[in-house]
Sequence to fold (137 residues):
Amino acid sequence: MPGGSDVNYHESLFYGIYDALADLEANVVLGVLPQTGTAIAVTFYGVQDHGTMTDSIQGVQLAIRAESRDTRDTPRLAEAVFDRLHGVTATDWHGIPIVHCYRNSSAYLGVDDSGNHKITDNYYLQVSRAGRHRTDT
Fold:
């Protein structure tokens, strides 16, 4: 994994999620699900940013797929993700202060062309994100 100043905000958050899920038998990727294999695709979307304070809520969508036609395998993987992310507090993910992480919603997406079941889980990250016009001082 790259590090240092060449890593941007979303990449830092991705690497934090990647690290948290490293013990799962799944390919964790940024962007879209790969065509094959058990995988978790991570994408980001903005939810809320305070105008002058560093308080932000960052949305994280996880597309989750177990390479299995067993209807129980993808929900098992989603619950393993939940066990590792939901309730994380007061930590740092590659330089980004994480105040709190929690799952906001979850939905079954049906099956893909290979008959594998898919789920989307949406997590909210309460983060402290300073900037030129956003400081707590």
Summary: Helices lie at 9-20, 73-85.
